[in-house]
Amino acid sequence: MGKFITFEGIDGAGKSTHIAFVSDYIKARGVELVSSREPGGTPLGEKLRDLVLHETMHLETEALLMFASRREHIAQVIAPALERGAWVISDRFTDASFAYQGGGRGMSVAKLEALEQWVHPALQPDLTLLFDVPLEVARARLDATRELDKFEQEKADFFAATRAEYLRRAAQFPQRFRVIDSTRSIADIQLRLAAILDGFFDEQ
Ligand SMILES: Nc1ncnc2c1ncn2[C@@H]1O[C@H](COP(=O)(O)OP(=O)(O)O)[C@@H](O)[C@H]1O
Ligand SMILES: Cc1cn([C@H]2C[C@H](O)[C@@H](COP(=O)(O)OP(=O)(O)O)O2)c(=O)[nH]c1=O
């Protein structure tokens, strides 16, 4: 079996900035790597992504579409890759549903756990990199760079709750989570990522 690594954090924390670095670092070890994202990662998932990022909908519809996209992603991409021994990096996975639909929007943890049990009862990431920054830093980075989607337009209290839920989960699952202080410079964060990945390779 390959290894499954997920990237998490509130919008603007710096996840996307570090994916190429982590990919290259893993590939340099001679491992086959599949890099993907959620919502999305398959042709159907990308259509669902477009809907869920731009249409207003009931909270539970939003959660169900996230898990529908995930079901397809696991079936088409993640499970086959892990089974053939490849490593998989996903820009977000189920922790994002707990943080955004749960923490941010207030959906019950019990309902999210039921969906998780349904869609991937036996699969969890081997390593989750949580890019953590205060809201003001994330907001300033987003404002400086891009057009904001539905989630990115949310207010500060939404992101405070989202960030808090991510940190709660990191404390709940310390085995797989590594929290990265994303207020640091990109170079400092790369040093920290390299140390985390070296440790992770040593454990294998
Ligand atoms: N450590 C950092 N220091 C300064 N700017 C950063 C840092 N990390 C990311 N950025 C910048 O912040 C913006 C948002 O980063 P991005 O990686 O797209 O965030 P995310 O994928 O988490 O939403 C980008 O313009 C990026 O260049
Ligand atoms: C996977 C997932 C993402 N999301 C949200 C978080 C993000 O705001 C958005 C898209 O994620 P992201 O890939 O970070 O967007 P970008 O391309 O702008 O960096 O989807 C959820 O609300 N629940 C989920 O389960």
Automatic annotation (TrEMBL):
<feature type="binding site">
    <location>
        <begin position="9"/>
        <end position="16"/>
    </location>
    <ligand>
        <name>ATP</name>
    </ligand>
</feature>
<dbReference type="GO" id="GO:0004798">
    <property type="term" value="F:dTMP kinase activity"/>
</dbReference>
<dbReference type="GO" id="GO:0006233">
    <property type="term" value="P:dTDP biosynthetic process"/>
</dbReference>
<feature type="domain" description="Thymidylate kinase-like">
    <location>
        <begin position="7"/>
        <end position="190"/>
    </location>
</feature>
<dbReference type="Pfam" id="PF02223">
    <property type="entry name" value="Thymidylate_kin"/>
</dbReference>
<dbReference type="GO" id="GO:0005829">
    <property type="term" value="C:cytosol"/>
</dbReference>
<dbReference type="InterPro" id="IPR027417">
    <property type="entry name" value="P-loop_NTPase"/>
</dbReference>
<keyword id="KW-0067">ATP-binding</keyword>
<dbReference type="InterPro" id="IPR039430">
    <property type="entry name" value="Thymidylate_kin-like_dom"/>
</dbReference>
<keyword id="KW-0418">Kinase</keyword>
<dbReference type="GO" id="GO:0006227">
    <property type="term" value="P:dUDP biosynthetic process"/>
</dbReference>
<dbReference type="GO" id="GO:0006235">
    <property type="term" value="P:dTTP biosynthetic process"/>
</dbReference>
<keyword id="KW-0547">Nucleotide-binding</keyword>
<comment type="function">
    <text>Phosphorylation of dTMP to form dTDP in both de novo and salvage pathways of dTTP synthesis.</text>
</comment>
<protein>
    <recommendedName>
        <fullName>Thymidylate kinase</fullName>
        <ecNumber>2.7.4.9</ecNumber>
    </recommendedName>
</protein>
<keyword id="KW-0808">Transferase</keyword>
<keyword id="KW-0545">Nucleotide biosynthesis</keyword>
<comment type="similarity">
    <text>Belongs to the thymidylate kinase family.</text>
</comment>
<dbReference type="InterPro" id="IPR018094">
    <property type="entry name" value="Thymidylate_kinase"/>
</dbReference>
<dbReference type="GO" id="GO:0005524">
    <property type="term" value="F:ATP binding"/>
</dbReference>
